[in-house]
């Protein structure tokens, strides 16, 4: 029953190779034009990075805003840049002082000017100069040279203090700027919020990176623990499948029950504490997710979710108990197959490495593309009627133009990174291409693994004498065969899935943008499209998986294999429809048990509840960052091992259906299934058999 030896879907194979070469070229171009420092370091009004080594700003790592009140302007949302002079400084101001205050103090003590001038642009050396005329306004830190500020994300922001319910800065609630205009602290806060609103995501990202830096060792330890538990579980499943799966079912039920009890205990405890009436809607979005855990409503949501999960698991086990017993027996048969092909258990490592390469290349390319823009400068003017405001300008030639004459006090300031060339205008399309090719490569990697596993387990099934007729190195042989002859077919199926996934991502993006819209019809239509494409993706995944099995068995092209697999499953729908999902459900419980067990241990560790090693626990901004990483990583590791079992069962089921249609059990056409598999599946009712030519 060896597959046909011939290349399939050659055109798609050629296209796939060309796309990979183009992807390498795209990454090279992005690497040449991109500069990640544009994302990491703040940039002053001259387009220079703060804190970059080898520049005059090497020791000036913090960005200072001259007139932070202008950051409340709508231009902040348009250009993502505050329309005021910005300069790099070694440290933020530590006292409140406007230019007017400095001039008053200068008459009695010149040290005030010595402090103030470090926040003025180079070239401004006259503290007696009247800047209200506008010609020198861009040289001094107009309203707030120093307002008792601190560095947040390498930027100076005012330190707001609430005293007896009143918002203050430097013990003041109001002040006058350099133009002698009365200002309130509330205006200052609104301006600061305009900037911090843009930087919230970056601040959260930096906190997450900081937590990863402190806890990476323990995260690795948690993932190693998950790896060891998964490996032990798989080895025990080989010898004690029935007992172990029964233990998994009981353990998951007890684990979820413990989660229900813990959530109920936290809920009742917080309901009796002060402030129990505060809900999630009252506090809104918070960067510190630990705040949500102090709300009883959060634990109520967890309690309801776990209760529904527990009820679903129990009902499935009750109503599908016969299918569960058959699925356990089928997994026992799969354990025998894996026992003869133990190397299959280690193939997920190859898939993991390939996926890591794909994800890393995509992420690096995306960052370099995002930072590929050139510095763009625009005219910033304090006058509302300046016709040149927000127009592109050149830093070198700006002073020689008539703009400064027609709009006194206007400046040519750095606005953002962009460009007018074809490359810069195409960055969005290049990012979409980067995403599409990334999805294609990821799906191809998974498809290669599925076809490899299917070919190995099909060689076990079709062997007349087991294990004598199983070819040597079945996993390596299947891998080389899939890569040599069926790259085009695997790429074809992967491309179909990648297109659907890209459309789903675009729909999710549109849905996020339309959340504040009041067009009910548009929201309804978008919701319907999301549902349809979700169903389409699930169907394509299912068909691709079975098509790869048929490709591994017969060596035909993708379309023919997908058609044969579909009609074969339809003719045996009673046998495989429920049984396949019940088997997946049992394997899912195993993955849930491993991830949940490791997650519980990680939870007690990162919340300082294990007394023996309490001193070793790092102090974190959010303990959920390493906790979720450990849980998600443990699930992926368990999924990698259990995917071998899932592919084994799917291959055995499809081969069993094909065996029943090709053979009749007579000496001339004997069944190639094992007696155990025939006993498991042979008695299940099926639709009338239609033999194929």
Structural write-up:
This protein has helices at 10-33, 37-40, 75-79, 99-106, 111-116, 185-239, 241-271, 280-283, 296-319, 321-340, 347-370, 403-406, 422-425, 427-461, 474-485, 487-513, 520-554, 558-571, 573-606, 624-662, 675-681; strands spanning 62-65, 86-89, 96-97, 146-147, 149-152, 155-158, 161-163, 166-168, 174-176, 182-184, 374-380, 392-393, 411-418. The chain has 693 residues and is mainly alpha-helical. Strands 12-11-13 form a 3-stranded antiparallel beta sheet, with no helix packed on it. It has a two-stranded antiparallel sheet with strand order 1-2. A two-stranded antiparallel ribbon has the order 3-4. Strand 9 (174-176) and strand 10 (182-184) form a beta hairpin.
List descriptors.
transmembrane helix; mainly alpha; disordered C terminus; 693 residues; glycoprotein; elongated; two-stranded antiparallel ribbon; Choline_transptr-like; transmembrane; Choline transporter-like protein; three-stranded antiparallel β-sheet
Q: What's the number of helices?
A: 21
Our measurement of the CA-to-CA distance between the termini, rounded to an integer number of angstroms, reads 16 Å
Number of strands: 13
Low-confidence stretches: 74-80, 132-148, 685-693
**Range of strand content:** 5-15%
What is the CA-based Rg, rounded? 33 Å
Catalytic activity: choline(out) + n H(+)(in) = choline(in) + n H(+)(out)
Protein name: Choline transporter-like protein
GO molecular function, one term: antiporter activity
Membrane topology: Multi-pass membrane protein
